[in-house]
Amino acid sequence: MQFLNIAALLVAAATTALATENKVIFQSIDDVDRTVYFTPNAGLAPLTPVEVPAGKQVNVTFPHGWIGNYYAVCQGKPNKPGMLGEVAFNGWNGLTYFDVSAIVDPSDHDGVAEMWPASALKPTSGCQLYPCANAYYVWDDVQTKVTPETVLVTTLGKTGYDIKQGEKVRGADVNAADEGYAVKRSHVEGKWF
Ligand SMILES: *[C@@H]1O[C@H](CO)[C@@H](O)[C@H](O)[C@H]1NC(C)=O
């Protein structure tokens, strides 16, 4: 089942191969201003932190092949990584890999909430209430999501706000059947087993 889904993604990726820039649409879904900080993998380009004001949307463009993560810090709070949005653009077979990761600080319920591809709206990674079965909690979790799209949405908000407002932002049902899209993280590099 998983292989069928991946095969379909590859066809989609091939047809959009000339695509477009890599982009994350940061969407604040509550009443808190935040700064998003980016951490590239070794050797990749640094990105300038961006302010995402309460309720606003800010788009950030990523270089080709950028792999790394980002976290959001609420105004007035210390700059320390919490829930991470992890991305690998133009990864194995040209696909985009992403997940919300609780590896660093699962108690951060006030930053990166959910991620999904901007037009397909699924698969989704991340939680509306914590903990949930849709984020990367433990090393080797099969929680990395894959899409041929190069534009991802990332919501920033407090626990519960997604439930009230995220659906409006997203316009799709939440934590929809994502099965078949999740892979191990090593797939980013084309390692399937
Ligand atoms: C961000 O990008 C999306 C999709 O490409 C676009 O619809 C939206 O207007 C952009 N938002 C801003 C604030 O530029």
Helix share bin: 10-25%
Bound molecules: 2-acetamido-2-deoxy-beta-D-glucopyranose
Strand and helix order: HEEEEEEEEEEEHE
Name the shape in a single word: globular
- Rg from Cα: 15 Å
Q: What is the rounded distance between the termini? A: 16 Å
Structural class category? mainly beta
| Low-confidence sequence ranges | 170-180
Mean pLDDT: 81
Question: How is the main sheet built?
Answer: 7 strands, antiparallel
- Total strands: the figure is 12
Treating each run of at least 4 consecutive H or I residues as one helix, how many helices? 2
Strand order of the largest sheet: 3-2-5-6-7-10-12
Give the amount of beta strand, in percent: 25-35%
What does this structure look like?
The chain is mostly beta strands and 193 residues long. It contains two helices and twelve strands, in the order H-E-E-E-E-E-E-E-E-E-E-E-H-E. The protein is globular and about 40 Å long. The two termini are 16 Å apart. About 6% of the residues have low confidence. The structure holds 2-acetamido-2-deoxy-beta-D-glucopyranose. The site of 2-acetamido-2-deoxy-beta-D-glucopyranose has 5 residues, from strand 4.
Strands, helices and their partners?
Elements: H1 2-15, E1 22-28, E2 34-40, E3 50-52, E4 57-62, E5 67-74, E6 84-88, E7 96-101, E8 112-117, E9 125-126, E10 144-147, E11 151-156, H2 161-170, E12 182-183
Parallel strand pairs: 1-11
Antiparallel strand pairs: 1-4, 2-3, 2-5, 5-6, 6-7, 7-10, 8-9, 8-11, 10-12
Bound molecules: 2-acetamido-2-deoxy-beta-D-glucopyranose.
